[in-house]
Amino acid sequence: MTPFVAEIVGTFLLMLLGCGVNANVSLQKTYGNGSGWIVITTGWAFAVYTGVVVAGPHSGAHLNPAVTIGLAVAGEFPMDSVPSYILAQFIGAMLGAFAVWLINKDHFDATEDGDTKRAVFCNAPAIPNTFLNLLTEILGTFVLVFAVLYFTDAVISSDNTIIGLGSLGALPVALIVWGIGLSLGGTTGYAINPARDMGPRIVHALVPIKNKGSNGWSYSWIPVVGPILGAALAAIMAMVLQ
What we know:
Elements: H1 3-26, H2 37-59, H3 65-73, H4 82-103, H5 105-110, H6 114-121, H7 130-151, E1 155-156, E2 162-163, H8 170-184, H9 194-206, H10 222-240
Antiparallel strand pairs: 1-2
Helix pairs in contact: 1-2, 1-4, 1-6, 2-8, 3-4, 3-7, 3-10, 4-9, 7-8, 7-10, 9-10
């Protein structure tokens, strides 16, 4: 498995299970309907765990453009590999979101509210406030990348295996994401990952969903810009504190 393929597969698994738990909790007539925020945050943590387990040995399991950019800014990942990683992450995210739509098609049809349907795919603020929503995404991603940089170094090993996020082991990364979701996720849904939000948002715009409503494009830049800024700040802070 090449790093490019590993990032596709890992991000696909992340989104299949992450958007999957969103669907299970939010859509009508699922067995998990209405089970709440703890189930969502736990499902996303397990989604991270699964993606990292599979992709970690082959790509470092970034699964997130913000992580890739943060590691590159910190000098822990080759800058010329950033575009291919981000492309792979977006491909994986879109494929995962598409699969979630496909297997839940009957439940999308059974759900009336368009915002609820969109929430399966992408984020929206609980209370719209551009500055505070952006700040939340910055801080959430800062925590993620800062912790990653303190737990491990992203290096090229002797056999040319890229060691990055995956070298932490899957469980610690999942726990960090779980903690971010529980503590900081209630205001924006904690995208903390540009591919996690934008990739599925594009799928939401493309697939046929009855009464799907708005795609939320006016908000869509925040889950992209916020995580990138947060990752860059985390990288700079980690270098300053070395």
